[in-house]
Please model this.
Amino acid sequence: MKIGVIGTGSVGRTMAARLAELGHSVTVGTRDPAATTARTEPDGMGNPPFATWHAEHPDVTLATFEQAARHGEIVLNATGGSGSLPALTAAGADNLRGKVLIDISNPLDFSQGFPPSLWVKDTDSLGEQIQRALPEVRVVKSLNTMAATLMADPKQLAGGDHSVFVSGNDADAKATVTTLLESLGHTDVIDLGDITTARGSEMLLPIWVRLMSALGTPIFQFKIVR
Amino acid sequence: MKIGVIGTGSVGRTMAARLAELGHSVTVGTRDPAATTARTEPDGMGNPPFATWHAEHPDVTLATFEQAARHGEIVLNATGGSGSLPALTAAGADNLRGKVLIDISNPLDFSQGFPPSLWVKDTDSLGEQIQRALPEVRVVKSLNTMAATLMADPKQLAGGDHSVFVSGNDADAKATVTTLLESLGHTDVIDLGDITTARGSEMLLPIWVRLMSALGTPIFQFKIVR
Model:
């Protein structure tokens, strides 16, 4: 399947590599591919320069936001939350129309340091903001409640015995995403309901960041035991 | 041990019954015991009248908020979130001074219907409000992330293989609460940190209420897989 990934940070890279490994045709989008390629310093999160990563993943194509959106039958929003609406606007509503957009972002505000707060919550969510900005895109909020490495390869922790959520207004889109998630190794995909239920999964982040501190690792997951 | 329970709703009753069953001396506090006893209609949540429940649990004493607080070596705040600060104020700072207060409440606002939103969140929490209002009480936020029946008897679901959180400023108080939780059957007690981490556990409620809808039952639990 052709997949577009919006964003070249750790989530975008980890998902792109895994999807390419599974045989998908993956194009990663960035604002300015030449500038992204030219960088020689680690990014703000300590990830190596994109070019270093790309040399190890030549099967992934680097392109503009627009080109990545146009390429994808499914598109992943793997930008940091504050960059999501600008990046998706740059990707273009025409290039995304009718497509499934898996929104992995979280509205984390680090302006006051760690732990971050959420700049939208409870009575709205970033998933809903994206759906409102792009009404003809079929937004499915998912994967935003775990570390990137577990999004892409959940079986590395407890054999995959933990949960992932989907929220969205389009049942077919959620079914498509569920199939993709299962192909990655997710075994318990829980449909929370329409896109307003993204408020629930985004509001998991405040305990997620505190659990990361308490446990000393980001490699943990929520399992809904029932 | 002598335990005071503030609140006669389903959380208060379920915890009181279980703690009495385990051999503790339990006094449940209400604003007006005579009025609570006189009620013959189910409460707003559909629970049977208190007198009906009390007839089946004669080992639990009904008293005022003040008397229950005075009785307890450990005190549980089992009131609904909006009633917590008034009830604890009525219980009296003098009666609670130096004691461990297990705060089970959540700041749920049902004024706009279901699902509720939170009336305090993210940059503050109800647990912190209670700690600020009662600075000489050792507040430990816990048990607020699950159905009452699972708080009291966690082993009824998956043999107890799921998680409960504690947040508080006093390490000894958290150790006391952890021992009590383990006596109830909780097997995975996670110390999130100081009382500000109650923001994390309280902000689990938005996904909890949506999971209850999606799963069709309140009998589920969060397990932190790691």
Summary: The mean pLDDT of chain B is 97. The interface with chain A takes residues 117-118, 121-123, 157-158, 161-162, 165, 190-193, 197, 199-201, 203-204, 206-211, 213-215, 217, 219-226 of chain B (CB under 8 Å). The longest helix of chain B spans residues 171-184. Chain B has one domain: 2-215.
